[in-house]
Amino acid sequence: MALVTEVRFAHADGALADTLSALPALDAVVVPETSTDPRGSVYFFRFDHESTTELRTVLAEDHTVATVTKLSGFVDDGVLGIEFAPGTELLAPEVTSQGGFVLAARSAAPTGGARGWRERWLLPDREAVHEIWRHAREVDFEFEVLELRQGGGIGETYPGGDALTDQQRRALSVAYERGYFREPREASLEELADELDLSASAVGGRLRRGMKSLVGQTLVADRASE
Fold first, then answer.
1. DSSP string for the chain
2. Would 13 be classed as within a structural domain?
3. Of 6, 15, 65, 97, whose CB count within 10 A is highest?
4. How many domains does the chain have?
């Protein structure tokens, strides 16, 4: 049975390690992305910092960052595409390799440790949680599990489920079950569209809106509780 797992972790060579250390007040949120590009080399972030110039300077000096791209079409200067340098330690690929995907991710500080990330994952079972924990320990992550909540998959039983429409829940469920969120992807947007009897653009829209609703609700809840 699927599990919603909330974790906090950090690593000296983890995503944006130097930036998070240099800018303690910086709030960074991973923007969910549902394109059909299987390479997944660029991650999208929304940064909340008073000085865009200072942020770009610090990112340019961060040893985990290979490139920084200002995304065309975004009015918000805080939304940037980040390609990580070789050797950067990331847990998201391990999550997808275990058949799960990241529901929400934002910068945070593990208890008594360096600044890192707080994330909410949807995983197929406890064995997947154990495998990710084992991998994290092997490569020297500071890692703590904050919550495990059991549910029947993407549905009404996990946090944020009530933020979804029935159509969004159905699209996300099919995408998850068919391996759309795995790395490499096991199903294309067109294959999901055939199963749902919709156009690829309609399915993509439901996935984007569903992920936006989930991230919005979970992050707002996190901010309120903190």
1. --EEEEEEEE-TTBTTHHHHHH-TT-EEEEPP---S-S---EEEEEEE-S-HHHHHHHHHH-TTEEEEEEPTT-S-TTEEEEEEPTT-B-SHHHHHHTT-EEEEEEEE--TTS--EEEEEEEESSHHHHHHHHHHHHHTT-EEEEEEEEE-SSSSTTSTTGGGS-HHHHHHHHHHHHTTTTSSS-SS-HHHHHHHHTS-HHHHHHHHHHHHHHHHHHHHHHHHHH-
2. yes
3. 15
4. 1
Question: Domain for residue 174, yes or no?
Answer: no
Give me the half-sphere count of Cα atoms (radius 13 Å) on the Cβ side of residue 54: 12
Query: Strand pairing partners for 44?
Result: 81
Tokens representing 77 are 């200067």
Provide the residue range defining the domain that includes 91. 3-153+214-225
- Is 44 within the bounds of a domain? yes
Which of 1-5, 65-69, 205-209 has the largest mean confidence? Answer: 65-69
- Which pLDDT band holds residue 151 (cuts at 50, 70, 90)? low
> Sign (positive/negative) of CA torsion 207, 213, 216, 220?
negative
Question: What CA–CA distance (Å, rounded) separates 47 from 28?
Answer: 5
The more confidently predicted of residues 156 and 4 is 4
C-alpha closest to that of 116 among 10, 19, 6, 18: 10
Specify the pTM: 0.68
